[in-house]
């Protein structure tokens, strides 16, 4: 058997602890060999304060998973590729669209894998929904992605800063599913972004998209939802309504339940990373990030009440 890929996690925050560490432990062909974190370590795993220190010490690391905020990801990815490491990027892949092509070029030049992950695409209902829609006439699409920011992003100052994306941090997950399941490319036609007066990123967004056939697509993202949380996509077709709910883990056709299965999305991500490295290829789809950039470009800004965390 080939030796396992020796991976380092950079940024030991919520997603690294909740998802990456268990997924790596459960995936054949890859193992956690080091951590770069300014504030935390794990017993028995080599620790470095920063990625630069890790790269300088070169402890036989093959790949890095960047679990840091998007604003610092480009510099880290560039340094890791330059040092000959394969790179896995958490979503969103960067703080701007234009910082990605140089990374794609660097990966090609160094013969390393660059993987821009979209974890929601690994939810169990996404591929079946794509297959279902491929042969249907689609009449309209409605997305509702509404959650409580205080529950899901406590204390995450970076998310409210420029490049942190605000409500598009979860909203881009819906866009990563839509860009996968709809058979044709679509584009933004109108947007209204609600910014708390004391914050640099939106707390809500109301978006309209269309495609070359005039398909109406609406998306509502909102971080002010308390009580039950909503991560739903409804698609009206010539043969009834397809509903993806719970972030892509449930699928219903009209009232018939087709799938209801919480799939380990990050296991899927790491299986794919191992496969990409074995095949010597990269996987970087920027389409969800392009839609978010369009929303910031075309969106009308609306000031709303300040957001105070406590
Ligand atoms: P987080 O809890 O704030 O963790 C991010 C980690 O990055 C921090 O713990 C810190 O690690 C490091 N970091 C923060 N600021 C930094 C800086 N200026 N320079 C270098 N390192 C810095 O955030 P998270 O929720 O894990 O999110 C990280 C990424 O994963 C985001 O892009 C997010 O969209 C994505 N993601 C999050 C979730 C989720 O449910 N939370 C789900 C899917 C994807 P150290 O203190 O260890 O250095």
TrEMBL record:
Q: Which residues form the Gfo/Idh/MocA-like oxidoreductase N-terminal domain?
A: 5-115
- Chain ranges passing through the membrane: none
In terms of Gene3D superfamilies, this protein maps to: Dihydrodipicolinate Reductase, domain 2 (3.30.360.10), NAD(P)-binding Rossmann-like Domain (3.40.50.720)
Q: Tell me a Gene Ontology molecular-function term this record carries.
A: nucleotide binding
Question: Do you know which Pfam families this protein is assigned to?
Answer: GFO_IDH_MocA (PF01408)
Q: What is this protein called?
A: Galactose 1-dehydrogenase
Look up and give the organism this protein is from.
Bradyrhizobium lablabi
């Amino acid at each position: 058997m080939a030796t396992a890929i020796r991976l380092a996690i950079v940024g030991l925050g919520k997603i690294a602890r909740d998802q990456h560490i268990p997924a790596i432990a459960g995936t054949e062909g890859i193992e956690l060999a080091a951590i770069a974190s300014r504030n935390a370590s794990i017993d028995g795993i080599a620790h470095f304060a920063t990625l630069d220190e890790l790269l300088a010490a070169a402890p036989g690391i093959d790949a890095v998973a960047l679990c840091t905020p998007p604003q610092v990801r480009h510099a880290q990815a560039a340094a890791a590729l330059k040092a000959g490491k394969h790179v896995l990027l958490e979503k969103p892949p960067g703080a701007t669209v234009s910082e990605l092509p140089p990374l794609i070029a660097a990966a090609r030049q160094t013969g390393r894998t660059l993987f821009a992950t979209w974890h929601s695409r690994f939810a169990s209902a996404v591929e079946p929904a794509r297959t279902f829609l491929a042969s249907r006439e689609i009449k309209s699409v409605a997305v509702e992605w509404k959650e409580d920011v205080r529950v899901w992003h406590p204390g995450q100052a970076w998310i409210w800063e420029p490049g942190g994306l605000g409500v598009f941090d979860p909203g881009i997950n819906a866009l990563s599913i839509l860009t996968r399941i709809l058979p044709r490319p679509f584009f933004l036609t109108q947007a209204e972004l609600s910014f708390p007066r004391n914050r640099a990123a939106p707390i809500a967004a109301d978006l309209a998209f269309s495609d070359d056939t005039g398909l109406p697509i609406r998306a509502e993202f909102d971080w002010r939802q308390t009580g039950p949380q909503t991560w739903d996509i409804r698609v009206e077709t010539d043969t009834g309504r397809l509903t993806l709910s719970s972030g892509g883990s449930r699928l219903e056709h009209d009232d018939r339940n087709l799938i209801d299965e919480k799939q380990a999305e990050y296991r899927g991500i790491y299986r794919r990373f191992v496969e990409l490295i074995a095949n010597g290829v990269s996987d970087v789809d920027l389409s969800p990030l392009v839609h978010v950039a369009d929303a910031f470009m075309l969106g009308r800004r609306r000031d709303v009440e300040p957001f105070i965390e406590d």
